[in-house]
Write a structure and sequence with these properties.
mainly alpha
Length: about 70
């Protein structure tokens, strides 16, 4: 199965995963003072989590669009 994503959708998916991962990384880091680090981390995790559903919908929609555009084997 092939998955073809528009560059905008690919960038959106990458950004959502990066925000979530960076937020989780900040929670375990120790270079930034704890209250500030926690606020930033929870904000990034919230953004990453909230944008996961639209990202998944976009990927699934792309998968259907590609399947519909392919010629059907007889």
């Amino acid at each position: 199965m092939k998955l073809v994503l528009r560059p905008q959708l690919f960038g959106f998916v990458v950004a959502t995963r990066a925000a979530l991962g960076f937020g989780l990384g900040l929670l375990v880091a120790s270079r930034i003072p704890e209250p500030r680090r926690r606020a930033i981390a929870l904000t990034l995790i919230g953004i990453g989590a909230a944008t996961t559903i639209p990202a998944v919908r976009g990927v699934l929609r792309s998968r259907r669009d590609v399947a519909a555009a392919l010629p059907q084997a007889v």
